């Protein structure tokens, strides 16, 4: 199989719900990152074989194949196709994996992967409507349990023994790390400024500076009266988009592109859909086995902070270094634009590796229904 490299990675800032990006149509938001990807890398859009776009709530403004309309909104040639994938929160990470597989197999030479979600315009759960997507057979298999991520997070906290203080400590640290990263300019080169009628949006909006365990203690549990999960230790409802270009080293040289990272391997795993969010644990084990690496070989981890117990359980089971895990903060502080998050995290990870000379990075993302993606990349010096 052919070697695959990532030769460009850009993202918008992540806007908070009803914040700076709320007025921007998701196809137009996607257009910003597609245009910037081409401009910053020197990529001629005409050579792109396909655009694979992640999006979760594919209704309303995000319906009818948002991937294709993002290509058109960007002004790219009509000959370039686009498709939209949904693996819940891991949609754009799966888009990246699909793109890598297409290039690796030789079926395509240049593929753009990414994703978008405007949760201000298309609310969480909008795609369900009045339907019951689980169906009676799936519910019967699990004794009528109605699958719920928040309850899953509570069950994880109970199983691993994380009390309210522990999850709130983790959440305060996420904000602290994100604020420090923003102040240090760690995100500046990767963010595409978005112009809106209200002004330019070029900084992540969700960071709450000065967040403390004491302040978080005032928030009421969201899913169980005596639970530990609340708005402050959960991922934020957000808007955002990101895009990456994948090709072979040979094609990159031919096109004058500069490879940033090598795609080492990807894996997807299923897990208990009641706990729902533990999939990153087996997915990490699977991708490490597949790539022949150990947890100690990895210098930076991005583990999506859907809820604080998710990375905490992952850390407990994998033995990864907490200092190397979400070192720039995560979705609790920086937001979680669902279908765009996988590409946003990968963009952050690639730039973090380059800024710090770190060889290997691993990204993993829990997903609704009890699945998870894990991807390993290697810095190209």
Could you characterize what this model shows?
The chain is an alpha/beta fold and 381 residues long. The protein is 34% helix and 20% strand. β3, α2 and β4 form a beta-alpha-beta unit. The radius of gyration is 19 Å and the shape is globular. Its EC number is 2.3.1.-.
Query: Major sheet: size, sense and barrel closure?
Result: 11 strands, mixed
Strand content: 15-25%
**Unreliable segments (pLDDT under 50, ≥5 consecutive)?**
none
State the helicity in percent bands.
Answer: 25-40%
- Helix-strand makeup class: alpha/beta
C-alpha-based Rg, rounded: 19 Å
Mean pLDDT: 97
Distance between the termini: 22 Å
Which oligomeric state applies? Answer: single chain
Number of helices: 12
Gross morphology is: globular
Say how many strands there are.
13
Order of helices and strands: EEHEHEHEHHHEEEHEHEHEHHHEE
